[in-house]
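note to self — DONT lose this again. spent like an hour looking for the file last time. sequence + predicted structure for the chain T wanted, 287 res
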Amino acid sequence: MRKKFLFGKEWFFEETAKLGESQSFAWGVIPEKTVFSGKTPYQRIEIFDTADFGRMLVLDGLIQLCTKYEYVYHEMLVHPALFYHPRPRKVLIIGGGDGGAVREAVKHPLEEIILVDIDKQVIDISKKYLPTVSAGAFRDPRVKVYSEDAVNFIERYPGYFDVIINDSTDEYGPSHPLWSVRFYKRISAALRRRGIAGFQTAYFREGFAQKARKEIKGLFSFFKVHRAYIGCFPFDECTFSFASQAVDLARVSRKTLRERYTKAGIQTRYYSPEVHSASGVIPGKVS
């Protein structure tokens, strides 16, 4: 939503009412230049430049990323899941059409990376207007891209993946079915015995995300929430939830994480084994 507001400027405000959030506060930014605006069969896409956050991607009025801080989000979504697993080889990314999660995944010695996003135009538009996000990762020969409904797609892969990363948008529009116990069960069924599932679960106060964390925790044997600080999101906050039926996430030590990180030989800007451990320390009444 855009409105003329402070300083005589046109502001963009996130349309959080559609998520059932309180309307007693607003999250806004001044767009300097609109780079793209259009509609796909699934959602409305906006990309605009800002002074403080770089270029922003907005879907259906909700901020997805900004180029200044997207590396924090994608590193904290992908690397904890991959380093919780002792030897990941096959990875599924659900959503994530901007390519940031794929960019982080290809840093690892994986055999196969599948991305399924219902909206092919998000992928194409992101490649054109947000090229630094995917940084050429879609050209990696290990990456396969499918533009279809993840709810049905995942049923074709029972017990197949070592890691599944759910990088869906918030619970609205085409992603609504991805925020359900039914879908979480399908994710669990598509994992191998020691598989790891990772989910973006918004910030702590969001009602739909609180519900999701509770449901995921109830479905999997082991569950852990991590948090990161991302400047373009409300309260600079985003949570990431990880789950497994066989791997006790709380018992994966910092020493083990450091060994896996060193062996992988990857470069990260925000994530580290130390940040991994520290980001999982959450006050009980908050999580």
